[in-house]
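Hey,
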Amino acid sequence: MSCGFEDAAEMRRAEAAEAAAKAMAQLFERRPVPGQDGSSS
C-alpha cells in the first residue's frame, strides 16, 4: 500500500464493474441469484 490512489480507484472500478455486470445479468436473465442479493455490499 504505497500510494493507494490508483490502486483504490482501480479496485473500486473493478468492484463497480462486477456489480454492474451482475445487475445487468440479473436484469437480462430475470433470475434471482442465490446468495448474491446484497451480500457483497
